[in-house]
Amino acid sequence: MGDYAMGTNRHLLRVENLRTYFPIRKGLLRRTVGYLKAVNGVSFAIEAGQTVGLVGESGCGKTTVARNIVRLTPATGGRVVFDGKDVLSAGGDELRRIRGEIGLVFQDSYGSLNPRMTVGDTVGEPLKVWGKIGRSEIAERVRALLSKVGLSRHCINRYPHEISGGERQRVGVARALALEPKLVICDEPVSSLDVSIQAQILNLLKDLQDEFGLTFLFIAHDLAVVEFFCDVVAVMHTGRIVEQAPAKELYRNPLHPYTCTLISAVPRAKPGVQRPRKLFRTEPLEGSKGVSRRDARGVLNCLSGCVFYPECTERQEKCLRRMPELDEKEYRRGHYVACWKS
Amino acid sequence: MDLIANNKRDVKKSDGNETLLSVRNLSTDFFAEEGIVRAVQDVGFSIRRGRTLALVGESGCGKTATALSIVRLVPAAQGKIVGGQIVFEGRNLLDLSERQMREIRGNGIGMIFQEPMSSLNPVYTVGDQIAEAIRLHQEKGCKEAWADAVEMLRAVGIADPQRRAREYPHQMSGGMCQRVMIAVAVSCEPALLIADEPTTALDVTTQGKILDLLDRLQKQSEMSILLITHDLGVVAQRADEAAVMYASRIVETADSRRLFVEPLHPYTQGLWESLLRLGFSGRRLRVIPGSVPAPLQFPAGCKFHPRCSKGRSDNRCRSVEPELREVEAGRCVACWHARGYEDKA
Amino acid sequence: MSEQGRIVEARPGKGAGLWLDAVRRLCKRKLAMVCLGVVMVYFLLAGFVYLAEMFDWRVGPTRWGEEVGQSYAPPSSKNILGTDIFGQSVLRKTLYGARISISVALFASLISIAIGVPLGAIGGYFRGFVDEVIVWIYSTLSSIPYVLLILAFAVVLRDKTVLGHRLTGIAAAYLAIGLTSWVGICRLIRGEVIKHKDREYILAAVSYGCSRRRIILRHLMPNVFHIVIIDFSLRFVAFVHAEVILSFLGLGEPNRPSWGAMINDARMELSRGVWWQMAAATAAVFLFCLALNIFGDALRDSLDPKLRIQ
């Protein structure tokens, strides 16, 4: 196939050492006493047609990464290269063009739709913004998009408060697809939905993935969802990726202690199954350092050790001194871990 | 931990057969702008001492309304209990006066809610909030109540409780707030704890810790738990019995093990099938077509029939609503097509 | 597409937006509808008088300063509310007075909205230096005592020529009020915009490349506009009062009757036992403001999105 590309050219999206620090201000004069390192050196890449999942618990920075990529939240450092263009330093028009090529699906189906715009308006708005096609064609395309996501034409004149959660999320997906984006970023798209609706939306996304060969960055906290939907999964904790591997490989063979913890914490829907041995440190750890968990992270970030140190059952002396890097060990093909243990 | 054991009420070492709460034919109406909505229809179940019953269902099925009805917390302007009986420790709660109900709330029945951050009062310290609950139900002075509050924080697994008791809810994470809520709810050692989606807003690792805590508290004081949830994994792992609700009615009850092994109602079957589990290797999930009907648009006959492969075209399912019948010992189901249903007419 | 994934919802019918929803809820409140009726009567009256003047329909005296009858006649069957110093019917004056008061309040509202809303939106959306400047301006303006400010403007603007038109007393009045009273609506809009601009639907709009202008006009404004309507209805009352004060201080419209001028005249009349002009004007203002206040409260309740039962 003559793949002379150095691996960098075939990546649709490449994130290199992304950092986002929020200053913590205290005191009367609002002096900056430290930084909350929401994203602390994240690097990954997505090829065209691939689906990459970013999984982790709340506060780990995965949503911030997604927002950094489209610059909804400004990043402090690093590089984001989308389709060969540098996003973080792009100017006004260039940035708008890049944004037009990335579609976003949000978690809160109710909050992400303008309550005063109908479904038809919401889905057609991206097309109107880019202004290049006429009204009747916009209407055509809106109808086509709605049927693509499984909504009938009757929804066009409805408002968000008149349709159900699952339908709203479909509208969100339709809007994200309106401009035929090269990359679709889904930020917890099914987390706030009921079980049966989750299944419908996941099927829908799978169908779209298969039919149109879309590229996804899928962010979630539910491991089962990520395993079902993604090709490659990256596990995040406190602003860093701690393990990354193809989906099936990750679940069969988790290496990082945090990944093992996450997997074992998922309640198995099988009664009587012996709960796997707990991989947390025993109680009490909640706030044991005398600061709340958030603060603990902020404080710990000033230290140079591994971010998972306080909760890790397998920690060693070495873990406190140096933060392990991700690509140091390629355990198996495509499987990366950031841990001194392995 | 000792605080729980030193309770003032005798902890009867029951054999697990004594029924603590028995709900029969409970119906509650809610007043919406468009009309009166029957959010809870003919709901009945019972919980034995020391056991956990899970009330399972998706959003809008009426489980929270049921919980609020049991403790009579439905505001008069929003809704009304229109029928049924709620027998708690031998007394029908619907016959009690408001003052008597206040004594039961917190003391006999504790309740924890879904959103830990917004269920705590942001302008009071957590210690104050626990101490207030203690002062209301036990005749204890401020200092004693505060000491008890600190002990409660320790009992629910919060480190450095002396310091934490002086903090405010916004200074704590979601998991810690939920522990504080649990502390408030169990501070007076209630016989029944109603937990309305206690872990939905939390991370999966925190979920496990909170559920472990509830387990521990239950074992120590033989507390019964009514666990309201939509998470089937939680039901499988933590509940002794389960009741499945759909569109304001209970459609199936069984002990949780049998419910998983052999669900009888098509809705329960559909839920299990659409559940995504780790290690799932299929290309698509099986879904229940359609969506939960809005309360003002409940279909005639069996409320699930438009979405049911068996009931969609069955005349009986379309016109006559099946009642909940006991088809085996300890198993009830409301479906014309369920195994053994016809025999028990 | 798999059968399982394709769910088609089919419920025909037109959607009801939040505005329509609010109107429906408002219509259910009887008292509010009655008050709206009262307010409408006043507006129609004012409109009628305005048109009469413009098209010269001669429904009333052209010069109010003419001696036409018995001066200071008490209320009787001939003059229901008595007469003023020139013998003009107080009832007529009261009815005509509506025109001045309402038109001043209306134009002043429009001016203050035209200034306050854009400034509030710009400050709230862009924050930073622009916001600081706007906040500084309105903080300074609102620190000056309101009455002094209006007086100052009214005195300065009186008899000035703007764009070729000579400013009459009434124009001076509403310009003065409008130019000084935009602070309240500006603050409100700024607060709402700050609340809304980080909502996810705005982020979504940014994420597909919407320009900032379009976001403010097409996405934010419809969601904060209910504030303008509510503020308008409540502030109208304040503007009617402001006009009354101006007239009372002699800075209003000299040639036509207005409620404020009637109250002004009452200063001397009361000592002579002539109470009917004062009573009529005060009653007119009171009734109008009461109706508008009650209606404004009901309007606020119906437009508040949080009070909707989902």
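The CA atoms of residues 145 and 267 of chain C lie 24 Å apart.
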